[in-house]
């Protein structure tokens, strides 16, 4: 077997590493994209202090799950008012980072609908102009700081778009676990489970290889051990750091494989049933593990190195973890009938991410 792994992001990790931002952005005019609570938490002041007059534009009203309804106006104001900045720094969870990824892709007209029309084709394109992205995650979950993807939601039309271009790889990722100390318990759970889902989805994936497996297995071991303990001690520097590293490893794993069936199912559950992303893509993990098992000897071996050789026990371990952090694991728990659940799974298997799933042909 031969393997190839490629990730171009210059990745900085460690407590206090945000301090490196000043050196990284030298010579650049910078726009900041961040979440509404960031100012109250002192984060905007911290960035202002680090960048001084190089910080020329601030967007601080990023909403969870960037939606076309809100992005349109932000995008057009950004290209009208901040065209002189060459770098965008996203400080926030996946919503801030994905918003920034959409912003840096400039259309000829500066109109958002031109970008949407390009996204709707589902084909790669070369943007008329773009800016460099620095991503500093404040949640330990999405891995968006080391992937080129952005999820753009259109909740009114029950649709989602996936943005992925060469320029949407962040140039630099700064993973500073100190920024995650203020993440509330519910978001700590949903983001931690998102990372667990990334790692597992990269294993039961047609694009998996021994290099992505190495990142994924390490991430899973850390999350299984760390997440329940972190919930009992949200202010622990050690546990925040371990979860940040686990989420980074999971991000590295799926940066090369993409996600699979659990994520494909999640899009329907978020759009139609309003589930937060991290819950939507993790409550089915025990089910999807069962569907993955037994299709590919090499994939089974990787899963068994984590969970042992007994499938029922492996599923129980995942179910127990989810229950221990307050997440229910059946479709019925979310008001979805058995018939609708089957339809959601079948639909998800036809999606681009569903087709990455190793059990896709058999299911
Ligand atoms: N691009 C990718 O590869 C990728 C992967 C997974 C998920 N996503 C996307 O990421 C989004 C979800 O991101 P998320 O799970 O990180 O949540 P989020 O960014 O939506 O943040 C969740 C909530 O936590 C708050 N918050 C964030 N950091 C905080 C902090 N340090 N202290 C206090 N509050 C804080 C936010 O304001 C928000 O209210 C979804 O849109 C999803 O589609 C993208």
Automatic annotation (TrEMBL):
Query: SUPFAM superfamilies of this UniProt entry?
Result: Dehydroquinate synthase-like
Question: GO:BP terms for this protein?
Answer: antibiotic biosynthetic process
Instruction: Give every Alcohol dehydrogenase iron-type/glycerol dehydrogenase GldA domain span.
Output: 8-177
Is ATP-binding one of the keywords UniProt gives this record?
Answer: no
- List the GO molecular function terms: alcohol dehydrogenase (NAD+) activity; metal ion binding
This protein's record includes keyword Transmembrane helix = no
- Name the coenzymes or cofactors required: Fe cation
One Pfam family in the UniProt entry: Fe-ADH
Keywords of the record: Oxidoreductase
Gene3D superfamilies linked to this entry: 3.40.50.1970, Dehydroquinate synthase-like - alpha domain (1.20.1090.10)
Coiled coil regions in record = none
Q: Which residues form the Fe-containing alcohol dehydrogenase-like C-terminal domain?
A: 188-352
The record, for NCBIfam families, names: Phn_Fe-ADH (TIGR03405)
User: Which family, according to the similarity comment?
Assistant: Belongs to the iron-containing alcohol dehydrogenase family.
Q: Give the protein's recorded name.
A: Iron-containing alcohol dehydrogenase
Q: Which organism is it from?
A: Pseudomonas kielensis
The beginning of the lineage is: Bacteria, Pseudomonadati, Pseudomonadota, Gammaproteobacteria, Pseudomonadales
């Amino acid at each position: 077997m031969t393997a190839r792994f490629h990730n171009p992001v210059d990745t900085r990790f460690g407590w206090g590493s945000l301090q490196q931002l000043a050196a990284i952005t030298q010579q650049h005019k910078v726009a900041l994209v961040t979440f509404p609570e960031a100012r109250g938490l002192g984060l905007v002041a911290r960035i202002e202090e680090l960048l001084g007059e190089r910080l020329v534009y601030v967007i601080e009203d990023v909403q969870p799950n960037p939606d076309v309804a809100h992005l349109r106006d932000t995008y057009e104001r950004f290209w009208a008012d901040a065209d002189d900045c060459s770098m965008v720094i996203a400080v926030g969870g996946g919503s801030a980072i994905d918003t920034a990824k959409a912003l840096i892709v400039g259309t000829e007209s500066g109109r958002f609908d031109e970008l949407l029309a390009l996204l709707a084709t589902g084909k790669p394109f070369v943007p008329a102009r773009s800016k460099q992205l620095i991503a500093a995650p404040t949640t330990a979950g999405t891995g968006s700081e080391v992937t080129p993807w952005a999820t753009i939601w259109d909740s009114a039309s029950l649709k989602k778009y996936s943005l992925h271009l060469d320029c949407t790889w962040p140039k630099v990722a700064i993973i500073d676990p100190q920024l995650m100390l203020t993440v509330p318990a519910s978001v700590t759970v949903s983001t931690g489970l998102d990372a667990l889902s990334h790692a597992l989805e990269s294993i039961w994936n047609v694009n998996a290889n021994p290099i992505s497996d190495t990142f994924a297995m390490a991430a899973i071991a850390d999350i299984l051990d760390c997440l329940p303990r972190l919930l009992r001690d949200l202010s622990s520097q050690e546990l925040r750091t371990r979860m940040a590293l686990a989420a980074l490893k999971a991000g590295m794993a799926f940066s090369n494989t993409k996600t699979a069936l659990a994520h494909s199912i999640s899009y329907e559950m978020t759009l139609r049933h309003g589930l937060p992303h991290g819950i939507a893509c993790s409550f089915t993990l025990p089910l999807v593990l069962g569907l993955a098992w037994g299709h590919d000897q090499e994939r089974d071996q990787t899963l068994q190195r984590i969970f042992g050789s007994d499938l029922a026990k492996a599923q129980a371990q995942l179910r127990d973890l989810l229950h221990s952090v307050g997440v229910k694991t059946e479709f019925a728990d979310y008001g979805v009938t058995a018939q609708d659940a089957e339809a959601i799974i079948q639909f998800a298997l036809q999606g681009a991410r569903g087709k990455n799933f190793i059990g896709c042909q058999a299911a």
